Amino acid sequence: MKIRSDIIKVYKDVHIWIGIVSGLMLFIAFYAGSVTMFEKPLERWATPPSTLSPAPSLQQADALVAAVLAEHPKAASRYFVAVRPHADQPARVYWQERAPGQGRRQSTEYGASFAADGSLQVTQTRKAPVAQLVDTLHQLVGLPFPDKIARPIMGAVAMAYAVALVSGLIVLLITLSKDVFALRIGKNIKRMWLDAHNALGLFSLPFHIVIALTSVVFAFHDQFYDAQGAVVYPQGIEWNEEHAEAPGGAAVLPAAELLRRVEQQLPGFEVQSFGFQNKDGHVEATVTGLDIRHGTRARVYASTHLDPYSGEVDAHDLPGHMDGWNGAVNAFFALHFGSFGGNPVRWLYLLMGLAGAALFYTGNLLWVESRRRKRKGVETPVQKRSAWVLACLTVGVSLGCVAGISASIAATKWLPSLVTDLKAWHTGIYYAVFVAAIAWAFLRGAPRAAVELLRLSALCTLAIPLSSIAGALGVACSWYHAGSWPVDLTALLSVLVMLYIARRTQMRLQQGHTDSVWSQGSAEPCSAEALPANPL
User: Fold this and answer.
1) pLDDT score of 15
2) How much is the pLDDT for 527?
3) What is the largest CA-CA distance in the chain?
4) What is the rounded CA–CA span in Å between residue 481 and residue 479?
5) Other residues' Cβ atoms within 10 Å of the Cβ of residue 287
6) Is the CA virtual torsion 407, 410, 412, 416 positive or negative?
7) Distance from the first to the final alpha carbon of the chain
8) Cα separation of 516 and 526, whole Å?
């Protein structure tokens, strides 16, 4: 029994300290990740109306391509023909160009159409970058560093996260039968938070295991491929660069005919676009689309090679047509992105993501409450600085992330007519709110800041539907898309939840333990004399 107790203590310490070190970064990853489940609707909501003329029919796409290549020869390196143009991609033909010294992510996208008089019309696409910002926060756990620095840190956090899952499960197994369905709400706040934490962790364990392991793979995929190349392919991989020559000098098939042939070969596959590359006079092509019956490696599309001269699809890269190994790898990606089952699965992943964020938040609350110096007499004890600091960080980082994302989204309907570098402004707004929230938490103390920052988060989130209303009323700088109501409705529901939590938090501050870090009387840190020898 003594040995078992010592082992459990070790696992408990491992679980606690990993949670303390990585919990706040994981909160950002999970909260932002839950928002990215509806990245495309958000991008559509945030993209301003195009000034481009209505897209010509698919039958006219080839004439449009010819006009584009005649006036913009750089487009021949890679251009796309959209099968069904929509609000966030209104052009029938679009392409990207890079200025000298620019990377792929700094490319400028252009779209083309025919004007009313039949002339070629080309405009720069100003696709809203806010959805990509939220996705980047998710991928890099909120770190404002370059990808090559932040991604390995994310991988280390994901590995620590996996260890925390295993150690937490081992600790929980000891009292599993007694505590798994318990949620004891009462004066013992620590016990209530522990029950909620255990329930969230246990019932979402398969989801968390998948997310943790896939995140490690995403973070270190270059290293994995390098190791695979050194061990499995020491002589290098021989790529077949031969191209299927166009029979008899035939031209590329018209887009409408390509669509017909692809739909014959891939029933149930909804084609979104065709991509073309001109290499030494030979055109290579890809087809992109989605089959909702199968999960994909990307969130909302799958892509594979297409012979543009015959319309023959190389389907071995598409879900539902893969061999066993590639199908298993594809399933791994699909499980991480929730790219299967349509909107019901996306809503489920959104809720699981929010529950994951709550898991890390409650973990920090438990650590703080576990180190509370309890009141034994008339005088209220001074709490440890370590507990005070973690309480402020928990409130500032978590609510700063929530408020920052909402503020950046709300600004997207106003920025395009005011600034040129949208990406820099969206990033700046997020981090300005985020840093200000952390500073406010330390200035005001965790209890007061928790209520105030929850109300700020609600206000920033309320600005999202208010921006849509302003656009519907014709207010300058804003706009409204007819199909954007789901984003606005979700934001309104989120506002109600935030205000409810703020109210409950206020009641907790007034009616809870007066010796707690979360009491209104604990807004200030302890004095230097009261510091423990090793506060952290």
Assistant:
1) 67
2) 40
3) 97
4) 7
5) 27
6) negative
7) 30
8) 13
Within 10 A of 138 (CB to CB), how many other CB atoms are there? 21
CB 454 within 8 A of CB 420: no
Is residue 435 very low, low, confident or very high in pLDDT (cuts 50, 70, 90)? very high
User: With b meaning 16 or more CB within 10 Å and e meaning fewer, what string describes 470-481?
Assistant: bbeeeeeebbbb
Which residues 6+ apart lie within 8 Å of 341 measured at CB?
Answer: 292, 295
Query: Residue 59 has which token pair?
Result: 């039958």
Phi, psi of 264 (to 5 degrees): -70, -40
CB 79 within 8 A of CB 286: no
Percentage above 70 pLDDT, the chain = 77
- Which element (helix H / strand E) includes 508? helix 485-511
Q: Is 358 left (phi over 0), alpha (psi -120 to 50) or beta?
A: alpha
Instruction: Tell me the C-alpha distance between 272 and 277, whole Å.
Output: 17
**Alpha-carbon span 322 to 313, nearest angstrom:** 13
Q: How far apart are CA 428 and CA 108, in angstroms?
A: 21
Q: What Å distances lie between residue 45 and 41, 49, 471, 488, CA to CA?
A: 6, 10, 11, 9
Q: What is the mean pLDDT of the chain?
A: 80
User: Tens digit of pLDDT for each residue in 121-151?
Assistant: 998 877 778 988 999 999 998 988 888 888 8
CA distance 166 to 406: 34
Question: Which residue would you say has higher pLDDT here, 438 or 248?
Answer: 438
Q: List alpha helices for 234-342, DSSP H.
A: 255-265, 324-337
Tokens of 303: 């892509």
pLDDT tens, residue by residue, 28-78: 999 999 999 888 888 888 888 888 889 999 999 999 999 999 999 989 889
Strand order in the sheet with 270-279: 120-124, 108-114, 93-97, 79-82, 270-279, 282-290, 302-306
